[in-house]
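Why do we bother with a discrete structure alphabet at all? Because it lets us treat a fold like text: something you can write down, compare, and reason about line by line. To make this less abstract, here is a complete entry for Sugar transporter. Read it the way you would read a sentence in a foreign language you are learning: slowly, and without expecting to understand everything at once.
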Amino acid sequence: MSDNLPKNNIFKVIGASSLGTLIEWYDFYIFGSLAVIIGHQLFPEDAGASALINTLAIFAAGFIVRPFGALVFGRLGDLIGRKYTFLLTLVLMGGSTFFIGLIPSYKSIGYAAPILVLILRLIQGLALGGEYGGAATYVAEHAPKNKRGFFTSWIQTTATLGLFLSLGIIVITKNILGAETFGDWGWRIPFLLSIVLVVVSIYIRMKMHESPLFSKLKAEGNISKNPLKESFNNKANFKMVLLALFGATMGQGVIWYTGQFYAQSFLENTCKLDFNDSRYILLWGIAFATPFFVVFGAWSDKVGRKWIMLSGMLLGILFYRPIYQIFLDDTDYTKIEQADILSATPAPVTAVLMQNSTDSLRTVSTQVRLKNGASFNSIHVDTVSATKGTLLGKEIIKDKVLPTPVFWKFVGLIFFQILLVTMVYGPIAAFLVELFPTKIRYTSMSLPYHIGNGVFGGLVPFIATLIASFSGATPLSGLWYPIGVAALSLVIGTIYLSNKRDEKIND
């Protein structure tokens, strides 16, 4: 192991690896963060809720192909080296993101729009499937063994920081352009900006040297001839792949995507929070919680990886439903009393003729401000019949702005969820690296990581939203998916995982 590597060198390695990984996660997350707006662009105007579900399905497709990317690029990484492989993944990822920003809308090219975006999302997923394993392996193979959890945890921060960066740029762009312009074409700017970040990262990565352990292996002529066969045909190694998946990464994946992606989707689509409010809450929660990736990574060097990760899963199982119930209760504005209202400002009444009918839809929108500082839009949609007059319609309450105390309560609840993310995610890179030998490490660790995160974790927003839409379901029904997966992983991990730390990885 590289115990004598100068400290300034290891931090250069971490910086170069982390910057590229940060940008790749940024590229991946802006799609999920803008799912609602993108859905309006990719599908017909009358698609309704199905537009969001279809867009989340396209988003999920990028996660589903990540294991295939892990196999393709993991094999390349074990054959030609870590450096050039995750340089290639960066180019593919950045290029796909840039081109998503250029795809015309449904109005211009019809269903070719979602099909083209789906193809680019699949390329993104393949590239990300090769990125993480390369970056984590590269850093771990430079790090001294007694600080492997600490040093690899810096790579772990990039996933959350990528989300933070994507949310920040989205909010700034929307505030500069205004909501209408942003929804029309301004949403493309975060996608197009990524190309600048990618060029900078490519320049930095080109100056990096190959991992010392891989270089040593190559000089000795011990590089794997067939990484896929050696990873999965070897019974002992394949057993470790399965254990890593079902005892660790599967549970880690659902905790990760529930605490960040599903939380944002729930606040925006179920609780109907204002666009900026939902993102500011997440931004503050991420900012407060991100340092704990390094805290738990370093702690795992002292006490082992297992129980830190499993504790994060257990806390998610116990507290998800109470947390999301609080989100629902504190955003229920249907029982507002007249005495609570400070002002109610109606907008001009609009009427739209219904297709193939003489009836029309009349919309009355009122901006309501409450004495506690909260506000929302109350929208009454009535059907006006040419023969029967005005028929009873429905009220929609959306764009809710929280009172300050409730806003910070929500920040605290998001912080707690992301704290659980740091517990399961901070130590996992070191945990996975230590399971597998150098010659097949890139391939072996990438597959369980990306099945756990890409399939089980990445499908959380889609499956949870879909479950909650079933007849008879409640808004909290979708949580049973991540809770169930985390519980299964907790049981398997408790029984079968060993509490490793400081394992030799130069075999």
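What the structure line is telling us, in plain words: The chain has 21 helices and five strands. Residues 338-401 form one domain.
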